[in-house]
UniProtKB/TrEMBL annotation:
<dbReference type="InterPro" id="IPR008927">
    <property type="entry name" value="6-PGluconate_DH-like_C_sf"/>
</dbReference>
<dbReference type="InterPro" id="IPR036291">
    <property type="entry name" value="NAD(P)-bd_dom_sf"/>
</dbReference>
<feature type="binding site">
    <location>
        <position position="50"/>
    </location>
    <ligand>
        <name>NADPH</name>
    </ligand>
</feature>
<dbReference type="GO" id="GO:0004735">
    <property type="term" value="F:pyrroline-5-carboxylate reductase activity"/>
</dbReference>
<dbReference type="Pfam" id="PF03807">
    <property type="entry name" value="F420_oxidored"/>
</dbReference>
<keyword id="KW-0641">Proline biosynthesis</keyword>
<protein>
    <recommendedName>
        <fullName>Pyrroline-5-carboxylate reductase</fullName>
        <ecNumber>1.5.1.2</ecNumber>
    </recommendedName>
</protein>
<keyword id="KW-0028">Amino-acid biosynthesis</keyword>
<comment type="similarity">
    <text>Belongs to the pyrroline-5-carboxylate reductase family.</text>
</comment>
<keyword id="KW-0963">Cytoplasm</keyword>
<feature type="domain" description="Pyrroline-5-carboxylate reductase dimerisation">
    <location>
        <begin position="151"/>
        <end position="253"/>
    </location>
</feature>
<dbReference type="InterPro" id="IPR029036">
    <property type="entry name" value="P5CR_dimer"/>
</dbReference>
<feature type="binding site">
    <location>
        <begin position="63"/>
        <end position="66"/>
    </location>
    <ligand>
        <name>NADP(+)</name>
    </ligand>
</feature>
<dbReference type="GO" id="GO:0055129">
    <property type="term" value="P:L-proline biosynthetic process"/>
</dbReference>
<dbReference type="InterPro" id="IPR000304">
    <property type="entry name" value="Pyrroline-COOH_reductase"/>
</dbReference>
<dbReference type="InterPro" id="IPR028939">
    <property type="entry name" value="P5C_Rdtase_cat_N"/>
</dbReference>
<keyword id="KW-0560">Oxidoreductase</keyword>
């Protein structure tokens, strides 16, 4: 199975590395190839020839920015005819992508945790048979967890879990920073913050606890946590997160309108 990753930038290079580590034959393209020569250490072939890469591949993954998709698809159109084409471009619909190629389209949204095989990938398609779905899910399995969803959810997924590592990182940065404020050394603050977020996420994934239950379990009456929660509520922390996800979702929706 040979996979071409077109657009080996932030997410494309992470995807190429993850697939190569899983044993797939991978070619990754971008114009400034010097920036990703490190991928060769993982057995990835690096190239600046999208057309040749797509021609030789069984499956093509598109990881260029949304505003570059049209140009790249014009270039590789004959080469991807009838092949599975997975697009990671935010906002671009199945219909938009289908109008540009005769490929079997999968619209997907992953996140940067591909780098540690803990990504969340949601995808939608109406072109693939059962075997092809299995194939695509095996590919996404190299990145972490994956689910198939209706296309109507893809913009919301983009706003929540595609962009999510950025929100989580802002929260982590704030936790680490506050650790410094209350006197912790940097390395201890970093470890305490990251492990706490990881542990809490695991609690949700491995038990049936609702986050509100976890919050209640931690909040000892008259104890320390309630003083922290009081400050968070006063700062409308949950409203801020909801506004962030809503704004990113809206942006995903307008991207395809902008790139008509
Ligand atoms: N970053 C993330 O966490 C996520 C991003 N995405 C999606 O992935 C896509 C890429 O995002 P991101 O990785 O952040 O962006 P980057 O800018 O880091 O990567 C895009 C890459 O595309 C390359 N590129 C541009 N034009 C061409 C071309 N004609 N042929 C081949 N390669 C080209 C660029 O390299 P060069 O200039 O050298 O050609 C660049 O490295 C977007 O559509 C985004 O919506 C999806 C999920 C998560
Ligand atoms: O910011 C972006 O547009 C991309 C899509 C999801 C994460 N990064």
């Amino acid at each position: 199975m040979r996979i071409a990753v077109i657009g080996a930038g932030t997410i494309g290079s992470a995807v190429a590395k993850a697939l190569a580590e899983e044993g797939y034959e991978v070619v990754a393209t971008r114009r400034k190839t010097s920036k990703v020569m490190w991928l060769e250490d993982y057995g990835v072939e690096v190239s600046n020839d999208n057309k040749a890469a797509a021609e030789k591949a069984d499956i093509v993954i598109l990881a260029v920015k949304p505003n570059k998709v049209k140009k790249v698809l014009e270039e590789v159109k004959p080469a991807v005819e009838g092949k599975i084409l997975i697009s990671f471009a935010a906002g671009l619909s199945l219909n938009f992508l289908k109008r540009l190629t005769g490929a079997k389209i999968v619209r997907a949204m992953s996140n940067i945790a591909v780098l540690v095989k803990e990504s969340f990938t949601a995808y939608t398609t109406d072109d693939l048979d059962k075997e092809e779905i299995e194939l695509v899910e095996r590919i996404f399995g190299a990145f972490g967890k994956c689910i198939r969803v209706e296309e109507e959810y893809m913009d919301a997924i983009t706003g929540l879990s595609g962009s999510g590592p950025a929100y989580a990182s802002v929260f982590l940065e704030a936790l680490i920073y506050s650790g410094l404020k209350v006197g912790l050394p940097r390395d201890i603050a970093r470890l305490a913050a990251a492990q706490t977020l990881l542990g809490t996420a695991k609690l949700l994934l491995e038990t049936d606890f609702h986050p509100a239950q976890v919050r209640e379990m931690v909040t000892t009456p008259g104890g320390t946590t309630i003083d922290g929660i009081f400050e968070l509520e006063d700062s409308r922390f949950r409203t801020a997160i909801m506004k962030a996800v809503e704004a990113a979702t809206k942006k995903s929706k307008i991207l395809s309108l902008e790139i008509k």
